[in-house]
Amino acid sequence: MTNPNKKDWIRLLEDALWAYRTAYRTPLGCLPTGLSLCNLDYDQAGKQRQFQLQELDELRLEAYENSRIYKQKILRKEFRVGQKVLLFNSRLKLIVGKLRSRWDEPFVITNVLPYGAIELKDKHTNNTFQVNGHQIKLFHEGPTPTAGDLETISLMEPTPNEIVAADNQRFEGYIDGCGMCGSIGHSFNDCPILQEPPPPFRPQSVQESSLEDLMKQLTMNNIQFKKNVSATQ
To answer: Looking at the whole model, is its pTM more than 0.85?
Structure first.
């Protein structure tokens, strides 16, 4: 504190600056001239704050209601007993392969319990367990291939004898095959294309011109030739 005569303020200037610079201050976000426009009526400011809190509660309740409606209409999954589903594998793995699926092989639903619980059965071990309905999704099976659509491809490396036999069979088919249509069921001389009879010959009609027409044509050509020669001279 300074003396009553206030002549020793220079001695306390450094302490005042230190206190001002180290004190915690909350920014008002307005210029000093705007402080005169602040609402200093505490009763009115309290009522306005209550209205703002009520509006915030209404917005929160509206967002909660919209979320509930969205979950009921969009995220609701209906499962039935006997359906095949895939189970999401949520176990923690430090190194997960990029191409590895996080959905385990299909399980069969044995019971649908309340509050979203589903009872599944493993077809390999016949064990049943309960999971949350949000962790499963329907398994869509593709068409079952028939015996005629299956093609067997051997992944074993062929032996040298099998390679020689396949080359001989391919070479024999090339010799005995038809060079016209590419089939190996018949030779070149027995090709059905060569056995087909050729289409009948149909001579085109030629319009006969008379001697008088030929003379007229020669005369016109001679006149045209003379005109061309005279034009070039």
So the answer is: no
How far apart CA 166 and CA 188 sit, in angstroms, is 23
Name residues whose C-beta falls within 8 Å of residue 84's C-beta, 6 or more positions apart in sequence: 106, 107, 108, 109, 138, 139, 141
Helix (H, G, I), strand (E, B) or coil at 180: coil
Spans of all domains in the chain:
42-76, 78-92+101-141
pLDDT digit string, tens, across residues 133-185: 888 888 887 776 666 666 777 777 777 787 777 777 665 555 455 655 656 56
Residue type, 33: T
Fold of 78-92+101-141: SH3 type barrels. (2.30.30)
